[in-house]
Amino acid sequence: MLKTLAVHIRGYVKASVATPLFMILEVIMEMLIPLLISSMIDNGINHTVMQNGVEIPSPDMGHILLMGGLMLLCALAALLGGAMGGVFGAKASAGFARNLRAAMFKNIQTFSFANIDRFSTAGLVTRMTTDVTNVQNAYQMILRICFRAPISLVVAMTITLLINAQLASIYLVAVAFLGVVLFFLIRKTHKYFTLVFEKYDELNASVQENVSSIRVVKAFVREHHEISKFERATLNLYTLFLKAEKMMVSVSPLMMITIYASIIAISWFGAMMIVGGSLTTGELTSMLAYCMNILMNLMMIAFIFIMITMSLASGRRIAQVLDEKATIANPEHPDTDVPDGSIDFEDVVFSYSETSEKPVLNHIDLHIRSGETIGIIGGTGSSKTSLVNLVARLYDVNSGCVKVGGKDVRSYDLEVLRDKVAVVLQKNVLFSGTILDNLRWGNENATEEECIAACKLACANDFISEFPDGYHTKIEQGGTNVSGGQKQRICIARALLKKPLILILDDSTSAVDTATDAKIRRAFAEEIPDTTKLIISQRVSSVENADRIVVMDSGEINAVGTHDELMQSCEIYSETYIAQTVGNGDFDKKGEM
Ligand SMILES: Nc1ncnc2c1ncn2[C@@H]1O[C@H](COP(=O)(O)OP(=O)(O)O)[C@@H](O)[C@H]1O
Ligand SMILES: [Mg+2]
After folding, report:
1. Is 387 exposed, middle or buried (0-12, 13-18, 19+ CB in 10 A)?
2. pTM for the predicted model, two decimal places
3. Each residue of 418-467: pLDDT tens digit?
4. Which ligand lies nearest to the CA atom of residue 118 in the structure?
5. Ligand 1 within 6 A of 380 CB?
6. Which of 61, 341, 382, 415 could cysteine-pair with 552, CB 3.0–4.6 Å?
């Protein structure tokens, strides 16, 4: 995991190295100051001269000024080190985060449908935002404190041991005591922080689901339910954070008591030593300064441990996204020539996850000639969508094979295949931009005339022309400012612009009235007769004129044939037909086709 993340420091290695170096400069300069104070007191202020065999005080102004000057220089250097360390640390960590996000985003773009099924969308969002921010903060802390604190600790301890080992042993006890307390604290808080991230996912899922389907929420007046769901998620987070923080806060008074106890002990024993002549006033002063320093650094180290454990969870989640291999990738020597629009399913077995018992598609054999129009009908969940998704290789089969133009779909270059096989997905979306922009997703270089021609085929030209801005009408994110049927027709036109060999409409005219639906199909038959058309529909009227109709039933092909054949032989089909034409009175059907 660390290796996966570490490569993304590239471009910011210099800043990453400079940060600790500057921080070390700061430490060394800070460490010198107590020594200078000690010398100032002992050799400057308490300077004595021998006069007539008697020692009399005679402060050495020259030495005092010299030490004062040096202290000022040290302080300035420390300031510079600290400031530069801060700047470089920020640069390194922000750059690291940027690289991580870019790499994740890039990898997500290669994800197949199966990869996306594995991570939830909410999970991906948390990983790209909160988790990266955590790692960024931790990285900055590590660069700034990870070197600084231990070095400072060791240097201060060495100096104090050199000054007076006996006195130094006092806070060694304090350090040992605090070390044990912090160890247990970290273990406890780590547990809570790991839980926190799982709750973040829940929170994001709640927000994402609600915001993206706010219209449905409103239509079903589920706001209260949604609010309470959201409140539960935030309350969970609140409780966990509170627990973790309480733990951290409780340690602060303990630290302070230990620090002050050490200071008192050092002062007490130090004073006795001064009287005894084994310690100077200057040395005691610097001892006290170092003592504070040491305990503070210990606290920093504890804090950084907590940061690291917190960010480890995040780092792991980021690495999972970075390490995820696209389940569908180009073959080594991709074929870029799709000869024709024939489709062959040969003993195809397919399921969405390896663990599921019953496959979603069970031993499917189906052969479709180039240019044929195939209707696919069947109840919801009968695997119609799953069947056609295999043609554009949105998923890969478990066994058997799907061929397009006589060649296995897995042998083609993905881009070429998906250009030749245009799928209008059941759940389709438009993107923010003008209608023209959206149409040109199908073909970037399409001229306005070509776009209009495609829209005429899809029966979209009429309503688009009626918009005040025509083809330059802005579509809002998700296409919320056009009706369902209008959206479907724009999506069909978008697919037509690819000039595909195979056109798959997955229930793509469900929101279009039957008259227009019939008109679209008639246009297809006249204008693009050579394109193989797979038309999935719930309406018998949409498929009855197809060359052949496939009836799907729980993952298997129940029957294949023309309308007349199926009326004779297929019970599911004839019953559906009767129910829809007689039972539901689909009366505008007759006059149309
Ligand atoms: N992304 C998916 N992950 C797991 N199972 C899925 C997924 N999509 C569909 N399924 C399952 O596969 C079966 C067939 O679904 P689908 O092909 O969408 O049927 P249809 O289009 O005929 O309504 C259903 O049982 C459905 O629950
Ligand atoms: Mg479907």
Report:
1. buried
2. 0.75
3. 999 999 987 788 888 899 999 998 888 999 999 999 999 999 999 999 99
4. 1
5. yes
6. 382
